[in-house]
Protein backbone atom coordinates (compact mmCIF):
# COMPACT_ATOMS: atom_id res chain seq x y z
CA UNK A 1 0.00 0.00 0.00
CA UNK A 2 1.34 3.51 -0.79
CA UNK A 3 2.58 5.50 2.19
CA UNK A 4 0.51 8.54 3.22
CA UNK A 5 1.76 11.77 1.64
CA UNK A 6 4.45 13.64 3.54
CA UNK A 7 3.33 17.16 4.51
CA UNK A 8 5.06 20.07 6.27
CA UNK A 9 5.01 19.68 10.05
CA UNK A 10 4.63 22.59 12.49
CA UNK A 11 7.82 23.17 14.49
CA UNK A 12 10.03 20.97 12.27
CA UNK A 13 12.51 21.86 9.55
CA UNK A 14 10.62 21.13 6.31
CA UNK A 15 12.70 20.75 3.14
CA UNK A 16 11.27 20.65 -0.41
CA UNK A 17 13.79 19.47 -3.04
CA UNK A 18 13.27 19.47 -6.82
CA UNK A 19 15.67 18.67 -9.62
CA UNK A 20 15.33 20.01 -13.16
CA UNK A 21 12.60 18.15 -15.05
CA UNK A 22 14.24 15.91 -17.68
CA UNK A 23 12.87 16.43 -21.18
CA UNK A 24 10.99 13.35 -22.31
CA UNK A 25 11.96 12.93 -25.97
CA UNK A 26 15.19 11.04 -25.37
CA UNK A 27 16.93 8.41 -23.23
CA UNK A 28 18.64 9.98 -20.19
CA UNK A 29 22.41 9.57 -20.05
CA UNK A 30 25.02 10.00 -17.32
CA UNK A 31 25.38 13.72 -18.08
CA UNK A 32 21.67 14.29 -17.36
CA UNK A 33 21.90 12.44 -14.06
CA UNK A 34 25.14 14.11 -12.95
CA UNK A 35 23.94 17.55 -14.13
CA UNK A 36 21.08 17.89 -11.66
CA UNK A 37 19.48 14.65 -10.43
CA UNK A 38 22.45 13.22 -8.53
CA UNK A 39 23.26 16.40 -6.59
CA UNK A 40 19.60 16.79 -5.57
CA UNK A 41 19.50 13.12 -4.53
CA UNK A 42 22.66 13.53 -2.44
CA UNK A 43 21.14 16.52 -0.67
CA UNK A 44 17.83 14.68 -0.14
CA UNK A 45 19.69 11.78 1.53
CA UNK A 46 21.65 14.24 3.70
CA UNK A 47 18.42 16.01 4.72
CA UNK A 48 16.78 12.74 5.74
CA UNK A 49 19.88 11.68 7.72
CA UNK A 50 19.66 14.99 9.59
CA UNK A 51 16.07 14.09 10.51
CA UNK A 52 14.56 16.92 8.48
CA UNK A 53 11.05 16.41 7.06
CA UNK A 54 12.06 16.10 3.38
CA UNK A 55 10.07 15.86 0.14
CA UNK A 56 12.01 15.20 -3.09
CA UNK A 57 10.01 15.46 -6.34
CA UNK A 58 10.80 15.36 -10.04
CA UNK A 59 9.18 14.21 -13.29
CA UNK A 60 9.30 14.28 -17.06
CA UNK A 61 8.74 17.53 -19.00
CA UNK A 62 6.47 16.37 -21.84
CA UNK A 63 5.02 19.26 -23.87
CA UNK A 64 6.65 21.30 -26.63
CA UNK A 65 7.76 21.10 -30.23
CA UNK A 66 10.63 18.68 -29.65
CA UNK A 67 8.18 16.02 -28.44
CA UNK A 68 5.93 16.58 -31.45
CA UNK A 69 8.92 16.36 -33.82
CA UNK A 70 10.22 13.15 -32.23
CA UNK A 71 6.74 11.58 -32.28
CA UNK A 72 6.48 12.24 -36.03
CA UNK A 73 9.91 10.64 -36.57
CA UNK A 74 8.90 7.54 -34.60
CA UNK A 75 5.39 7.28 -36.12
CA UNK A 76 3.68 7.73 -32.74
CA UNK A 77 1.23 10.23 -31.27
CA UNK A 78 2.90 12.70 -28.85
CA UNK A 79 1.03 11.01 -25.95
CA UNK A 80 2.28 7.54 -26.96
CA UNK A 81 5.84 8.88 -27.22
CA UNK A 82 5.58 10.51 -23.79
CA UNK A 83 4.19 7.34 -22.22
CA UNK A 84 7.09 5.30 -23.63
CA UNK A 85 9.82 7.69 -22.52
CA UNK A 86 8.27 8.47 -19.12
CA UNK A 87 8.41 4.76 -18.20
CA UNK A 88 11.94 4.53 -19.56
CA UNK A 89 13.09 7.53 -17.49
CA UNK A 90 11.38 6.21 -14.35
CA UNK A 91 13.06 2.79 -14.79
CA UNK A 92 16.52 4.33 -15.24
CA UNK A 93 16.24 6.51 -12.10
CA UNK A 94 14.97 3.50 -10.15
CA UNK A 95 17.96 1.48 -11.37
CA UNK A 96 20.29 4.25 -10.16
CA UNK A 97 18.39 4.24 -6.83
CA UNK A 98 17.56 7.94 -7.07
CA UNK A 99 15.44 8.49 -3.95
CA UNK A 100 12.52 10.52 -5.37
CA UNK A 101 9.48 10.58 -3.09
CA UNK A 102 7.46 11.12 -6.25
CA UNK A 103 8.47 11.00 -9.92
CA UNK A 104 5.64 12.45 -12.02
CA UNK A 105 5.04 14.08 -15.40
CA UNK A 106 3.66 17.31 -16.86
CA UNK A 107 0.86 15.84 -19.04
CA UNK A 108 -1.76 15.61 -16.28
CA UNK A 109 -5.13 17.23 -15.47
CA UNK A 110 -3.48 18.97 -12.48
CA UNK A 111 -0.94 20.59 -14.82
CA UNK A 112 -3.76 21.92 -17.02
CA UNK A 113 -5.74 23.18 -14.03
CA UNK A 114 -2.84 24.96 -12.27
CA UNK A 115 -1.30 26.43 -15.47
CA UNK A 116 -4.68 27.77 -16.62
CA UNK A 117 -5.35 29.16 -13.13
CA UNK A 118 -2.01 31.03 -13.10
CA UNK A 119 -2.83 32.33 -16.60
CA UNK A 120 -6.28 33.56 -15.47
CA UNK A 121 -4.70 35.37 -12.50
CA UNK A 122 -2.17 37.10 -14.78
CA UNK A 123 -4.99 38.08 -17.15
CA UNK A 124 -7.17 39.45 -14.32
CA UNK A 125 -4.28 41.55 -12.97
CA UNK A 126 -3.40 43.06 -16.36
CA UNK A 127 -0.04 41.32 -16.81
CA UNK A 128 -0.76 40.03 -20.32
CA UNK A 129 -0.53 41.77 -23.71
CA UNK A 130 -1.84 40.83 -27.14
CA UNK A 131 0.28 41.38 -30.24
CA UNK A 132 0.72 40.20 -33.81
CA UNK A 133 3.64 38.00 -34.82
CA UNK A 134 4.68 37.03 -38.31
CA UNK A 135 5.09 33.27 -38.62
CA UNK A 136 5.66 30.75 -41.36
CA UNK A 137 2.53 28.85 -42.32
CA UNK A 138 2.47 25.72 -44.47
CA UNK A 139 -0.75 25.67 -46.48
CA UNK A 140 -0.08 22.06 -47.52
CA UNK A 141 -0.10 20.89 -43.88
CA UNK A 142 -2.64 23.53 -42.80
CA UNK A 143 -0.54 24.61 -39.83
CA UNK A 144 1.83 27.29 -38.55
CA UNK A 145 5.33 25.88 -38.43
CA UNK A 146 7.11 25.88 -35.09
CA UNK A 147 10.86 26.58 -35.27
CA UNK A 148 11.85 22.91 -35.52
CA UNK A 149 9.38 22.17 -38.32
CA UNK A 150 11.14 24.47 -40.79
CA UNK A 151 14.55 24.38 -42.45
CA UNK A 152 16.24 26.75 -44.87
CA UNK A 153 19.35 28.70 -45.76
CA UNK A 154 20.99 30.63 -42.90
CA UNK A 155 20.75 34.42 -43.53
CA UNK A 156 24.19 34.89 -41.90
CA UNK A 157 26.47 32.14 -43.27
CA UNK A 158 24.35 30.61 -46.09
CA UNK A 159 24.42 27.12 -44.51
CA UNK A 160 21.61 25.33 -46.41
CA UNK A 161 20.21 23.24 -43.49
CA UNK A 162 19.66 25.86 -40.80
CA UNK A 163 16.75 25.29 -38.39
CA UNK A 164 14.05 27.86 -37.69
CA UNK A 165 15.60 28.72 -34.32
CA UNK A 166 19.37 28.35 -34.82
CA UNK A 167 22.07 27.65 -37.38
CA UNK A 168 24.17 24.63 -36.42
CA UNK A 169 27.08 25.85 -38.54
CA UNK A 170 27.61 29.45 -37.39
CA UNK A 171 25.69 29.06 -34.11
CA UNK A 172 23.64 32.25 -34.54
CA UNK A 173 20.04 32.42 -33.32
CA UNK A 174 17.52 32.82 -36.13
CA UNK A 175 13.92 33.96 -36.36
CA UNK A 176 12.26 31.41 -38.70
CA UNK A 177 10.87 34.15 -40.99
CA UNK A 178 14.48 35.28 -41.69
CA UNK A 179 15.43 31.94 -43.32
CA UNK A 180 16.08 32.06 -47.05
CA UNK A 181 14.34 29.36 -49.14
CA UNK A 182 12.36 28.00 -46.15
CA UNK A 183 10.98 24.49 -46.45
CA UNK A 184 8.40 22.64 -44.33
CA UNK A 185 10.12 19.59 -42.81
CA UNK A 186 6.85 17.63 -42.87
CA UNK A 187 5.73 17.94 -46.50
CA UNK A 188 8.75 19.80 -48.04
CA UNK A 189 6.39 22.50 -49.31
CA UNK A 190 7.24 26.23 -49.28
CA UNK A 191 5.68 28.02 -46.28
CA UNK A 192 4.48 31.63 -46.46
CA UNK A 193 4.88 34.43 -43.90
CA UNK A 194 1.48 34.99 -42.25
CA UNK A 195 0.47 37.28 -39.35
CA UNK A 196 -1.02 35.60 -36.25
CA UNK A 197 -2.17 36.91 -32.83
CA UNK A 198 -0.33 35.85 -29.66
CA UNK A 199 -0.33 36.58 -25.93
CA UNK A 200 2.70 38.02 -24.14
CA UNK A 201 3.71 38.23 -20.50
CA UNK A 202 4.13 41.94 -19.73
CA UNK A 203 7.48 41.64 -17.95
CA UNK A 204 8.25 45.42 -18.08
CA UNK A 205 5.21 45.97 -15.82
CA UNK A 206 6.75 43.60 -13.23
CA UNK A 207 10.29 45.01 -13.47
CA UNK A 208 10.15 47.45 -10.54
CA UNK A 209 8.63 44.93 -8.15
CA UNK A 210 11.09 42.25 -9.29
CA UNK A 211 14.13 44.55 -8.78
CA UNK A 212 13.04 45.40 -5.24
CA UNK A 213 12.57 41.71 -4.41
CA UNK A 214 15.96 40.80 -5.92
CA UNK A 215 17.79 43.48 -3.93
CA UNK A 216 16.35 42.17 -0.66
CA UNK A 217 17.10 38.54 -1.66
CA UNK A 218 20.67 39.31 -2.74
CA UNK A 219 21.25 41.08 0.59
CA UNK A 220 20.62 37.74 2.35
CA UNK A 221 23.68 36.41 0.49
CA UNK A 222 22.36 33.02 -0.65
CA UNK A 223 22.65 33.53 -4.43
CA UNK A 224 25.84 32.54 -6.26
CA UNK A 225 27.85 35.31 -7.93
CA UNK A 226 27.06 33.76 -11.32
CA UNK A 227 23.28 33.78 -10.70
CA UNK A 228 23.42 37.41 -9.57
CA UNK A 229 25.49 38.41 -12.61
CA UNK A 230 23.14 36.76 -15.15
CA UNK A 231 20.06 38.28 -13.48
CA UNK A 232 21.62 41.76 -13.38
CA UNK A 233 22.44 41.49 -17.10
CA UNK A 234 18.77 40.81 -17.90
CA UNK A 235 17.65 43.77 -15.81
CA UNK A 236 20.35 46.08 -17.15
CA UNK A 237 19.06 45.61 -20.71
CA UNK A 238 15.45 46.04 -19.54
CA UNK A 239 12.90 43.23 -19.50
CA UNK A 240 10.89 42.73 -22.70
CA UNK A 241 7.41 41.22 -23.15
CA UNK A 242 7.71 37.46 -23.70
CA UNK A 243 5.39 35.43 -25.93
CA UNK A 244 3.66 32.65 -23.95
CA UNK A 245 1.49 31.06 -26.67
CA UNK A 246 2.25 28.82 -29.65
CA UNK A 247 0.33 27.61 -32.72
CA UNK A 248 0.66 23.93 -31.81
CA UNK A 249 -1.71 21.16 -30.80
CA UNK A 250 0.55 19.42 -28.24
CA UNK A 251 0.44 21.47 -25.05
CA UNK A 252 -1.79 22.96 -22.37
CA UNK A 253 -4.75 24.66 -24.10
CA UNK A 254 -5.09 28.45 -23.76
CA UNK A 255 -8.48 29.08 -22.04
CA UNK A 256 -9.35 32.36 -23.78
CA UNK A 257 -11.68 33.11 -26.70
CA UNK A 258 -9.72 33.88 -29.84
CA UNK A 259 -6.79 31.74 -28.64
CA UNK A 260 -8.42 28.36 -28.02
CA UNK A 261 -6.65 26.82 -31.03
CA UNK A 262 -3.30 27.62 -29.39
CA UNK A 263 -1.35 26.12 -26.47
CA UNK A 264 0.98 27.61 -23.88
CA UNK A 265 4.65 27.88 -24.83
CA UNK A 266 6.50 25.09 -23.05
CA UNK A 267 8.69 27.57 -21.10
CA UNK A 268 5.56 29.17 -19.60
CA UNK A 269 4.12 25.74 -18.91
CA UNK A 270 7.05 23.55 -17.82
CA UNK A 271 8.13 25.34 -14.60
CA UNK A 272 4.52 24.95 -13.37
CA UNK A 273 5.25 21.20 -13.61
CA UNK A 274 6.99 21.38 -10.21
CA UNK A 275 3.68 22.47 -8.68
CA UNK A 276 1.48 20.03 -10.60
CA UNK A 277 3.78 17.06 -9.91
CA UNK A 278 3.53 17.87 -6.19
CA UNK A 279 -0.26 18.19 -6.66
CA UNK A 280 -0.29 14.66 -8.11
CA UNK A 281 1.57 13.49 -5.01
CA UNK A 282 -0.79 15.24 -2.55
CA UNK A 283 -3.97 17.31 -2.84
CA UNK A 284 -2.43 19.51 -0.11
CA UNK A 285 0.40 20.58 -2.45
CA UNK A 286 -0.01 24.28 -1.55
CA UNK A 287 1.26 23.52 1.96
CA UNK A 288 4.65 22.79 0.31
CA UNK A 289 4.59 25.63 -2.22
CA UNK A 290 2.70 28.53 -0.55
CA UNK A 291 3.82 28.15 3.03
CA UNK A 292 6.95 30.25 3.69
CA UNK A 293 6.41 30.30 7.47
CA UNK A 294 7.11 26.53 7.55
UniProtKB/TrEMBL annotation:
GO cellular component: a single term: aminoacyl-tRNA synthetase multienzyme complex
Catalysed conversion reaction: tRNA(Met) + L-methionine + ATP = L-methionyl-tRNA(Met) + AMP + diphosphate
NCBIfam families on file: metG (TIGR00398)
GO molecular function: ATP binding; methionine-tRNA ligase activity
Taxonomic superkingdom: Eukaryota
Family: Belongs to the class-I aminoacyl-tRNA synthetase family.
Entry's Gene Ontology BP terms: methionyl-tRNA aminoacylation
Gene it is expressed from: Mars
Assigned keywords, A-Z: Aminoacyl-tRNA synthetase, ATP-binding, Ligase, Nucleotide-binding, Protein biosynthesis
Domain Methionyl/Leucyl tRNA synthetase: 15-292
Parts forming coiled coils: none
Protein known as: Methionine--tRNA ligase, cytoplasmic
Amino acid sequence: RPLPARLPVEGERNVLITSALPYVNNVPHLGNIIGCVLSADTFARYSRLRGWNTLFVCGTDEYGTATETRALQEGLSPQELCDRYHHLHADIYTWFRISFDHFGRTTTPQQTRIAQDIFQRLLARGFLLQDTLEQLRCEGCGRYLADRFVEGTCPFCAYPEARGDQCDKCGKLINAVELKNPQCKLCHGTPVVTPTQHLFLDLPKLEGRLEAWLESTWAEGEWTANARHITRTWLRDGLKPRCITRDLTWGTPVPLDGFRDKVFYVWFDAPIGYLSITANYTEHWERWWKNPQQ
